[in-house]
Amino acid sequence: MVETIAAVGAAVAIGVTALAAAWAEKEIGTAAIGALAEKEELFSKVLILTVIPETIVIFGLVVALQILSAA
Prior knowledge:
By secondary structure, this protein is an all-alpha fold. The protein has one domain: F1F0 ATP synthase subunit C (F1FO ATP Synthase, Up-down Bundle), CATH 1.20.20.10. It has helices spanning 2-38, 43-51, 54-70. α1 packs antiparallel against α3. The longest helix is centred in the N-terminal third of the chain and has 37 residues, at 2-38. The chain is elongated. The mean pLDDT is 92.
């Protein structure tokens, strides 16, 4: 029973962080396209801002692995 609850907790940790990263990526990407249309020299800053939400999924993976290793 404990393993089942741990698996569900790990799935929620990854699922919620993936959804949050996707939403943030959509919002940042939309703003980035608008900014690049006006000033092309912002490309490097826009690229960095586009990659940052992916770290949220990495944190979710770390939490999921910790949950599964504790079970």
